[in-house]
Design a protein that fits this description.
19 helices; 766 residues; 29 strands; alpha+beta; Beta-Lactamase; single chain
C-alpha cells in the first residue's frame, strides 16, 4: 500500500481501517499513460511519472526543470499556455502527436489545474477504436431513457447503452441504501457470466474517502487491474514538500486493496461512473471486463455524459415511481372507503369486498380490531399475538397513528413477530380501548443474498498486517433481523385519512341512530297513546251503543209477538230482518268490546298445564263437535307454561271452533300439538330456543295463500254472512292480539282445499 499512514500499520486492523487510507495522494499513477506536473506560472516540469523512459525514451529526471518545448511543437505549447488561465479541476482534452519524440504515436493530452500544479496527462491513441459510436443508436437510447417512467426501466436502458458504447463484459447499476450498503438493480452482461442482479454489498466495500472521491470525480477508469504503479519523480512536490493531491488526475493510481478486490471478482478492467442526486451519491454504473481493456477518452467522456444525464433525471423517475404508488394508494383508498360508507356495518366494509384494507399499502397483512373482534387478512401474527400487541399499544401514550419499521426496538417480545410484523402501522378507531386498524410488514429481506463474505485480516510472512477485501464472491446469506421496509410519508398520511373517514362514518351513523331512536321513541309514544285512546273509545262507544241497540232488538220482538196478526207478510218479514240485524250488530259490538279489553287489561300470568286447558276447551265444545262429527286429538303431551289462563282458553276455543266450522268433510279432524325444538327452529323465529310453538291443524276447506294476512284483520270474512255458521270476522284478530300480548306470534300455513294449520308461539320466559 503506497504512502499509507504509519499509524494504520501499527493499529489494530478492522473493517474500518481502509476508511483512513490516503487514496487521494498515492504518489503514483497507472502506467498505461504518463503524467507531467508543471509549475503554474513558469510551466516548467516539477514532477514526472517514472515510466516516461519506457514510453518516451526520456528518463523522468531529465524532464525536470525543462519546458514542454522538448516534447511538443511551439504552436501546441502556445495553445496550452493560452488555456492555462482558464483551467480548473474540469479536464480539457487535446489530441497531439509527440513529433519531437521519434516514433511515438498520437497522444491525448488531458489538462487540468489543481493543488498549485498544471497537470498534463498523456494517454495513447489506440490503433483501433474500442467501439464504434453509432449516433443514431445513441439518440434512440437517450430517447428510451427519457421516456422511461420507472426507475428500474430507466436503469436498464442506461446499462445497456453503456455496454453498447464500451464493450465491457458486464455493466451494472449499484444503488445505495440508507445505511450505505448497496444492491445491483440493473445489469447488462455477456451471456456466459453469472448474474449479479439482486446481490447486496456491505457499506465497507466502498470506504468513506472513496465515496468522497466519487462525488468529485464522475468517472474512474482502470484498464488493467494487474498494473504495477509508476511513482512520481520526485514523490513530493518540491514547493510543498508533500505528495501532490491527485484527486482529479485521470491516471491516479488506486488503492491496492481495491485492486485485490477486483482480482477476487475476476475483473481485469473496470470503469465506474458516479450517479449523483441532490449532491449525494445515489449509486454507480460499474463496468467490468475479464481481460485488460483500454476504452478511449472520448468514449469514456460520452459515458460520463450519460452518467450526468442519468443523475439529472433520476429524481424525476423516482417521482414517477412515487406518484404511481401514491395513485394506486389513492384509488384503492377511494374504493375501500366507498365500501365502508355503503356498508350497514362499516367493519365489514373493510374486508368483505375487494379492495380490502390490506390492499391499500404494500404490506404482508392487516388486522381489523373492533369491539373485541379481530379479523386477520394476509400474512399476520396469530390472534393471541395481535391481542398482546393491542395491549401494548394501549399502554403507550395516546396517538392517532403509530408506525415503526422495527417493533422489537420498542418491545422485546417483537422478536416473535418479526417474520410477519417487524414493521407495524396502527391507527386508533375510537376512544374505546382495543379498536385499531393494523398493517404488518415482515423483515425487509429475511434472507439477503450478499456478494461474498466479509473482509478479513491477513498477516504476511514478515508479520505485517493489512486489510484485504473479501476472499470469495460466492453468494452467502446473512439474516437481516427485525427491520422492515420503512413506512413512507404518503402511507402514513393515507392511514390518517382512512382513520378520519371512518370516524366521520361512525359519527354519521351514530347521529342517524340517535335521530332514528328519538323518532321511534316519539312514534311509539304517539302510537301507545293512540292505541289507548282507541281502546278507550271502542270500549265507551260499544258499551254506550249496547243499551239502545238492545232496546231496538227487544221492541222488534215485542212487535212480532203482539202485532204480527195485524201486519201483512211483508211487515212481518221486515220486523224479522230488523231483529236479525240488531242481533248481528250486538255481536259485532261485543267482539269490539272483547278486543278492547285484550288491549286494556293486564295479563294474569300463572303456571298453566296446557294439557288440562285444552281438555277443558274440548269438553266445553263437545256437544258441537258431536253434532258436526268432529274428532279432536292431542298429538303429544303439552308443556306447562306461564300464561294468562283465561286468554289462552279463548285462543284455543276460537281456533278449535274455526277448525270445526270451516270444514265441509263428513268426518272432520282437528289435531292440537306443540312442535319439537328442531322443528320450531325451522319456522323463522329469531330465538327459537326461547319459545314454544303450538299448532291447531284441520282437514277443512283451507285458505288461499293470498288471503293469509287478511284473515287476521278485524271483521274480515272470506265468505258470505250465511256460510259456515256466520260469525263477525273478529275472532282471529282477537286471537292474534292475545298471542302478541304474551310476546308471541300467530301465523297460518294452508293451501285452498287442503286444510289449514294455525301456529302460535309463546315465550318460555314470561
Amino acid at each position: 500500500m503506497s504512502y499509507t499512514d504509519e499509524r494504520l500499520l501499527n493499529a489494530e486492523i478492522n473493517l474500518t481501517n481502509c476508511d483512513r487510507e490516503p487514496i487521494h495522494i498515492p504518489g503514483s499513477i497507472q502506467p498505461y499513460g504518463f503524467v507531467l506536473c508543471l509549475h503554474e506560472q513558469t510551466m516548467q516540469v516539477v514532477q514526472a511519472s517514472e515510466n516516461t523512459l519506457e514510453l518516451l525514451g526520456i528518463a523522468a529526471p531529465d524532464l525536470l526543470g525543462a519546458g514542454l518545448e522538448q516534447l511538443l511543437p511551439a504552436e501546441q505549447v502556445e495553445a496550452i499556455a493560452h488555456l492555462r488561465p482558464t483551467l480548473g479541476v474540469t479536464p480539457k482534452l487535446l489530441g497531439v502527436r509527440l513529433d519531437k519524440v521519434t516514433g511515438q504515436p498520437f497522444y491525448k493530452i488531458i489538462l487540468h489545474r489543481y493543488d498549485q500544479l498544471l497537470w498534463l496527462e498523456f494517454e495513447p491513441v489506440a490503433d483501433a477504436p474500442t467501439s464504434t459510436l453509432d449516433l443514431g443508436q445513441l439518440n434512440e437510447a437517450l430517447g428510451q431513457m427519457l421516456s422511461a417512467t420507472r426507475v428500474l426501466e430507466f436503469c436498464q436502458h442506461a446499462v445497456e447503452q453503456v455496454r453498447s458504447i464500451t464493450g465491457f463484459d458486464r455493466v451494472a447499476i449499484y444503488r445505495f441504501a440508507g445505511d450505505e450498503s448497496g444492491e445491483i438493480i440493473a445489469e447488462a452482461k455477456h451471456e456466459d457470466l453469472e448474474p449479479w442482479l439482486g446481490l447486496h454489498y456491505p457499506a465497507t466495500d466502498i470506504p468513506k474517502q472513496a465515496r468522497a472521491m466519487y462525488l468529485k470525480n464522475w468517472l474512474r477508469f482502470i484498464p488493467d487491474a494487474s498494473y504495477v504503479p509508476a511513482p512520481l519523480v520526485p514523490v513530493n512536490n518540491p514547493a510543498t514538500n508533500r505528495p501532490p493531491d491527485m484527486t482529479y488526475a485521470v491516471l491516479r493510481s488506486v488503492s491496492p486493496i481495491h485492486l485485490q478486490y477486483l482480482h477476487n471478482m475476476g475483473s481485469a478492467a473496470t470503469m465506474t461512473i458516479s450517479l449523483i442526486s441532490d449532491g449525494k451519491l445515489w449509486g454507480m454504473v460499474t463496468c467490468h471486463h475479464r481481460t485488460p481493456r483500454l476504452v478511449g477518452y472520448e468514449l469514456r467522456d460520452l459515458c460520463q455524459f450519460l452518467g450526468k444525464t442519468f443523475s439529472a433525471l433520476i429524481k424525476t423517475k423516482e417521482q414517477y415511481d412515487e406518484q404511481e404508488y401514491q395513485l394506486r394508494i389513492r384509488e384503492t383508498q377511494v374504493h375501500l372507503l366507498e365500501h365502508v360508507s355503503s356498508s350497514v356495518n362499516f367493519v365489514e366494509g373493510l374486508y368483505r369486498q375487494h379492495p380490502t384494507v390490506q390492499d391499500v399499502f404494500d404490506c404482508g397483512g392487516a388486522a381489523i380490531c373492533f369491539d373485541g373482534e379481530i379479523v386477520l387478512l394476509g400474512n399476520t401474527p396469530t390472534q393471541a399475538q395481535v391481542q398482546e400487541l393491542l395491549a401494548w399499544l394501549q399502554e403507550q401514550p395516546p396517538q392517532d397513528v403509530f408506525h415503526t419499521n422495527s417493533y422489537v426496538a420498542h418491545n422485546p417480545v417483537g422478536l416473535a413477530l418479526r417474520p410477519t410484523a417487524s414493521g407495524i402501522m396502527a391507527i386508533s378507531l375510537a376512544d374505546a380501548p382495543g379498536n385499531y386498524l393494523l398493517w404488518f410488514r415482515p423483515e425487509v429481506v429475511q434472507t439477503v443474498t450478499w456478494a461474498g463474505q466479509n473482509s478479513k485480516v491477513e498477516v504476511l510472512a514478515d508479520g505485517q498486517a493489512f486489510l484485504s477485501p473479501r476472499q470469495s464472491f460466492e453468494a452467502w446469506k446473512q439474516l437481516v433481523e427485525s427491520t422492515a421496509a420503512p413506512w413512507k410519508p404518503m402511507e402514513i398520511e393515507a392511514a390518517k385519512e382512512i382513520r378520519l373517514h371512518i370516524s366521520d362514518v361512525r359519527l354519521k351513523v351514530f347521529n342517524e341512530l340517535q335521530a332514528r331512536a328519538a323518532r321511534l321513541s316519539q312514534l311509539n309514544s304517539e302510537l301507545e297513546r293512540s292505541n289507548d285512546e282507541l281502546d278507550s273509545f271502542a270500549y265507551v262507544a260499544s258499551h254506550d251503543l249496547k243499551e239502545p241497540l238492545r232496546g231496538i232488538h227487544n221492541y222488534s220482538l215485542f212487535l212480532l209477538e203482539d202485532y204480527a196478526d195485524q201486519l201483512d207478510a211483508e211487515g212481518v218479514s221486515k220486523l224479522q230482518t230488523l231483529v236479525r240485524l240488531s242481533q248481528r250488530m250486538e255481536n259485532l259490538i261485543e267482539s269490539l268490546l272483547q278486543l278492547s279489553r285484550v288491549g286494556r287489561q293486564d295479563l294474569t300470568v300463572e303456571d298453566v298445564d296446557m294439557n288440562e286447558l285444552v281438555a277443558e276447551v274440548v269438553e266445553l265444545l263437545a256437544p258441537r263437535f258431536e253434532q258436526t262429527n268432529t274428532t279432536v286429538t292431542v298429538a303429544h303431551s303439552l308443556p306447562v307454561i306461564r300464561c294468562d289462563q283465561v286468554r289462552m282458553r279463548e285462543v284455543f276455543n276460537n281456533l278449535l271452533t274455526n277448525a270445526m266450522r270451516y270444514n265441509d268433510h263428513a268426518n272432520k279432524t282437528v289435531e292440537v300439538g306443540v312442535l319439537p325444538a328442531e322443528a320450531a327452529g325451522q319456522k323463522g323465529l329469531a330465538n327459537p330456543d326461547d319459545f314454544y310453538v303450538f299448532y291447531v291443524r284441520d282437514n277443512g276447506i283451507g285458505i288461499d295463500p293470498k288471503h293469509h294476512s287478511n284473515i287476521f284483520k278485524l271483521f274480515k270474512r272470506l265468505h258470505g254472512q250465511e256460510k259456515y255458521g256466520g260469525g263477525t270476522g273478529a275472532g282471529l284478530a282477537i286471537v292474534k292480539k292475545m298471542v302478541e300480548k304474551h310476546g308471541g306470534t300467530l301465523w297460518v300455513e294452508s293451501t285452498k282445499g287442503e286444510g289449514a294449520t294455525f301456529y302460535f308461539s309463546l315465550s318460555k320466559h314470561v
